[in-house]
Write a sequence for this structure.
């Protein structure tokens, strides 16, 4: 059984003794975004079976085959990780139709979680994952039938540019790209007809599409209800069939919808591209132009590219769907409705854009499209309030969160609920409200904008991503940060600010958890895969580690992908974030070979010297000895990092200098008993081998477990510090040094 996680009054995770703990690990893994049967990744050719087979899809064995679970979990444990964010999709649960759940997939998920529990040492929290609504609109998440529910025809998304899928770039015969799929094009689908419509309906259908009534409910209530039902069906089944993994503190909670987005809300003028929309790449239609394209009309749209100071218009192009519509005709919709037992309001006419149906736009007597209500989504019709990001988060999103939370707490009042607002936006203002309890966690995401969009690590300059999104700069050029040292500090400052923002708006008692953070590995046009030089990736991951350590933040890296390859990355929209790849398993490291490597290369020796105020000795802490399985881990030096596993007192600061091979931790120990204060530090031998590491502290004695790579530091109360430094192999052991010792 895992130790139960508690939360202190200051919003820090603690163990049952009150010692601070940090949860760090990975997202396992992006393969859940697409089915295993048929194995339909985002680089599978777009064809009719892509849609026809959707209801028959199976996600069993995603994220991982049952017989491979133990291997991958041990990989993660050897990195010092103790937590997994476990994504799943709505589609994986309910792809066949509304209310028809895939019990085989649910049972498979429970088996995976049981195996994780049996390996031990890993906490799991569940993530209902989505990106731009669905894989049929260029992302992942919702089943195909939800698009049909809205009256949309995904088969025509390509020609109408209602969504741009990587699948459309793949030749059906060769299975290769017909033309290169542009870097990070997929997020632009957030601002195209399909995803914007679905997310608007999901969060605001009752106010903005009153004619969209299906089976007696507004489409907002229908979609939200089905989503929540599906998620809670999975969670309830876990409690019912495997109560031990919840009671044993393996499954610790559930997150809300991954990366919710605003749809058309915050588009204050539908005839214009919002000025604060920084993501403009490729064809960039306004909302009104998307409406017209959706009904098959030709439109001339702007084309953009991304520069370091923001989007840059490169020209215009004519997009002509040639009369093909992104909306189901009456006959097509009638067949769909019969299949899914849907009855719609008589006011909901088929073959017409939902937004034309609601008189946002129409056709004039000359058969020209006319925008009648350019600010339709900018004003709440019930209150007259302006719908900006703050309003959306504290109203539309909050209504969903309250509904989701209520259902979850009916099932489980003891586990954690991870509250996730829109990406890189402040959480709702819930401080001192009943929607915050002692089991609420603030889940936030962070990606460095420049590294993400350009897939490179620029050591010369970067930008303040969070500052740009918060509107702090009149011109993005003022957000520039120069020099790698300042770039690292800027990243650290951004994460610290997000943490403080969470505390200010949710309450000091709410923990902050970065449930997604990461860097792309296919940097510099995949140069590392050709020459083996991962220095850019190491520097980028080290900068993230430095930023997280500054505030002792818990995190789950995006990601660990069991199907990652150099060619297709994480097999989803050319993303390549996985810290592990099968294509980097050129050297198989067993426990024996790794220990031999450490002895030969590092002067490893199982003995210690003494210091005046204590002693260091080698021990074996309780538990099974893990087997190092680093094969396939990329940028290992930057990912494998020391950190306080259990901290006796309050965290003050920490810093790991990868280049200088030094780790310094400062704490304020507040124990009130005469018993020794013990702080446990994960100390990887790759950085701090036992023949080449000096330790300097303000007080204390030490015990080290070389198998688990854990240093137990027994120290006095008050402000205490410990510095571990790797010295050269030729250095002489420190003898009689009053400030520390040499580990030998």
């Amino acid at each position: 059984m895992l130790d139960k996680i508690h939360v202190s009054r200051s919003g820090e995770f603690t163990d049952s003794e009150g010692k601070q703990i940090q949860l760090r690990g990975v997202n396992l893994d992006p393969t859940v975004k697409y089915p295993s049967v048929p194995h339909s990744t985002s680089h599978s050719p777009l064809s009719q079976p892509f849609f026809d087979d959707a209801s028959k899809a199976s996600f069993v064995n995603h994220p991982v085959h049952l017989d491979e679970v133990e291997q991958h979990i041990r990989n993660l444990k050897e990195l010092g990780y103790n937590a997994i964010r476990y994504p799943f999709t709505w589609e994986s649960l309910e792809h066949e139709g509304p209310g028809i759940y895939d019990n085989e997939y649910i049972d498979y998920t429970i088996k995976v979680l049981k195996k994780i529990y049996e390996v031990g040492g890993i906490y799991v929290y569940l993530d209902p994952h989505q990106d731009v609504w669905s894989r049929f609109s260029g992302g992942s998440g919702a089943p195909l039938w939800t698009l049909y529910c809205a009256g949309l025809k995904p088969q025509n998304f390509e020609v109408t540019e209602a969504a741009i899928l990587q699948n459309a770039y793949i030749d059906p015969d060769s299975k290769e790209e017909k033309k290169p799929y542009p870097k990070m094009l997929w997020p632009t689908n957030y601002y195209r007809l399909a995803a914007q419509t679905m997310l608007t309906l999901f969060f605001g259908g009752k106010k903005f599409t009153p004619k969209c009534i299906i089976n007696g409910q507004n489409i907002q209530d229908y979609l939200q209800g089905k989503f929540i039902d599906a998620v809670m069906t999975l969670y309830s089944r876990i409690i019912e069939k495997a109560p031990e993994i919840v009671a044993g503190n393996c499954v610790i909670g559930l997150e809300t919808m991954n990366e919710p987005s605003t749809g058309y809300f915050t588009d204050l003028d539908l005839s214009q591209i919002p000025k604060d929309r920084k993501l403009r790449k490729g064809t960039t239609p306004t909302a009104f132009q998307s409406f017209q394209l959706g009904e098959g009309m030709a439109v001339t749209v702007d084309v953009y590219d991304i520069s370091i100071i923001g989007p840059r218009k490169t020209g215009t192009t004519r997009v002509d769907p040639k009369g093909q519509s992104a909306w189901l005709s009456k006959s097509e919709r009638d067949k769909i409705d019969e299949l899914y037992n849907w009855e719609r309001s008589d006011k909901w006419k088929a073959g017409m854009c939902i937004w034309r149906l609601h008189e946002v736009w129409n056709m004039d007597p000359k058969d020209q499209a006319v925008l009648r209500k350019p600010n339709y989504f900018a004003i709440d019709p019930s209150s007259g309030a302006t719908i900006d990001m703050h309003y959306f988060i504290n109203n539309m999103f909050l209504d969903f969160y309250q509904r989701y939370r209520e259902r979850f707490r009916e099932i489980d009042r003891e586990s954690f609920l991870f509250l996730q607002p829109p990406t890189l936006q402040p959480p709702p203002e819930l401080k001192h409200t009943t929607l915050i309890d002692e089991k609420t966690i603030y889940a936030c995401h962070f990606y460095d904008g420049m590294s993400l969009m350009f897939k490179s690590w620029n050591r010369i300059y970067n930008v303040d991503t969070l500052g740009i999104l918060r509107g702090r700069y009149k011109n993005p050029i003022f957000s520039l940060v120069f020099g790698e040292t300042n770039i690292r500090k800027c990243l650290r400052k951004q994460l610290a600010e997000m943490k403080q923002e969470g505390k200010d708006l949710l309450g000091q008692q709410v923990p902050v958890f970065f449930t997604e953070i990461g860097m792309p590995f296919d940097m510099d046009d995949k140069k590392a895969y050709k020459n083996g030089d991962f220095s850019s990736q190491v520097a980028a991951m080290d900068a993230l580690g430095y930023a997280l350590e500054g505030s002792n933040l818990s995190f789950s890296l995006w990601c660990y992908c069991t199907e990652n390859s150099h060619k297709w990355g994480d097999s989803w929209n050319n993303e390549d974030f996985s810290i592990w790849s099968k294509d980097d398993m050129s050297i198989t490291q067993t426990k024996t070979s790794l220990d031999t490597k450490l002895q030969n290369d590092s002067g490893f020796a199982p003995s210690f010297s003494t210091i005046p105020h204590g002693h260091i000795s080698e021990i074996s802490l309780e538990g099974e000895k893990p087997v190092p399985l680093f094969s396939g881990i990329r940028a290992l030096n930057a990912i494998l990092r020391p950190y306080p596993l259990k901290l006796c007192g309050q965290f003050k600061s920490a810093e790991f200098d990868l280049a200088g091979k030094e780790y310094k931790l400062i704490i304020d120990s507040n124990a009130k008993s005469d018993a020794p204060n013990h702080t446990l530090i994960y100390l990887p031998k790759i950085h701090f081998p036992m023949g080449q590491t000096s330790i300097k502290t303000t007080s204390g004695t030490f015990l080290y477990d070389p198998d688990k790579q854990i240093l137990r530091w027994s120290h006095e109360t008050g402000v205490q510090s410990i510095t571990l430094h790797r010295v050269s192999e030729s250095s002489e052991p420190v003898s009689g040094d009053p400030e520390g010792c040499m580990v030998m």
